[in-house]
Amino acid sequence: MTRVGVVGAGVMGTGLTQNLTEHGHEVVLTDRSKEALDRARAEIERYERFGALLGATGPQREDMTRRVTYSTDLAELGEVEFLVENITENWELKRELYPRLDAVCRPETVFAVNTSAIPITKVAARTGRPDRVLGMHFMNPVPMKATVEVIKGWHTSQQTIDTAQSLLASVGKSGVLVNDSPGFVSNRVLMLTINEAVFLVADGVATAEQVDRIFTECFGHTMGPLATADLIGLDTILYSIDVLYENFQDSKYRPCPLLQRMVDAGLHGRKSGEGFFRYADAA
């Protein structure tokens, strides 16, 4: 396998493209926004120049940029052997996208859904290849995280799982295979934790700084839940919690109203310059 399609040129898609190309894969990176593709190109070029300072260890980093094809046309994905989709965590967008991907890609191409909460079986039903669809939940920043949550849908074949694990191994990663469920393992736990941390701030029990200090200094976590939320993006957090609430119909997944207000106000975390904390280095 050498040619991989990446759909969505946001933070995750860009990081995944970096990781794939520095390990020798050719990548077709698509996005409906030319501006997003231009930002991704600039970031990948910067990563190639300064990768050593960022801890990148790929053996072929010097050839990264020439291995990427950038396009707003999904038809460019027609010859990829494996595809990873990374668009916004929004079911309506994914529901519309997958029949289009199914039409342009070869029948044997594997589709990996890089989602934090949307059920894989639900996505696979929008294609004519449900046995070749699985979840691959990459963590951010992709080049620095060695483990991926791999999700088996209802119809996912063992051959598809083996292909996905082989791709991960080729970029220095391993996959933990779990069964399909909204939020899977990571986000059924993480989203509840973040949502409850937001409630603590909303209820005046503690400030964001105090909440995160307890997790970093008492439990030894690298980041507190609210700094983690800012890194992921509060809009993405809200989408994910909404998916859990809709699928489980359990009140424990009810999004905190403060989270909704912050998203409405454009306070999306690091990418907007402010969330629960302020960031001077926002794009």
TrEMBL record:
Keywords: Oxidoreductase. One of its GO terms (molecular function) is (3S)-3-hydroxyacyl-CoA dehydrogenase (NAD+) activity. Residues 4-180 form the 3-hydroxyacyl-CoA dehydrogenase NAD binding domain. Residues 183-279 form the 3-hydroxyacyl-CoA dehydrogenase C-terminal domain. Pathway: Lipid metabolism; butanoate metabolism. Gene3D superfamilies: N-(1-d-carboxylethyl)-l-norvaline Dehydrogenase, domain 2 (1.10.1040.10), NAD(P)-binding Rossmann-like Domain (3.40.50.720). Its EC number is 1.1.1.35. Pfam families: 3HCDH, 3HCDH_N. It is an enzyme of class 1 (oxidoreductase). It comes from the Bacteria. InterPro entries: 3-OHacyl-CoA_DH, 3-OHacyl-CoA_DH_NAD-bd, 3HC_DH_C, 6-PGluconate_DH-like_C_sf, 6PGD_dom2, NAD(P)-bd_dom_sf. PANTHER family: 3-HYDROXYACYL-COA DEHYDROGENASE FAMILY PROTEIN, 3-HYDROXYBUTYRYL-COA DEHYDROGENASE. Belongs to the 3-hydroxyacyl-CoA dehydrogenase family. This is 3-hydroxyacyl-CoA dehydrogenase family protein. It comes from Streptomyces carpaticus. The lineage of its organism: Bacteria, Bacillati, Actinomycetota, Actinomycetes, Kitasatosporales.
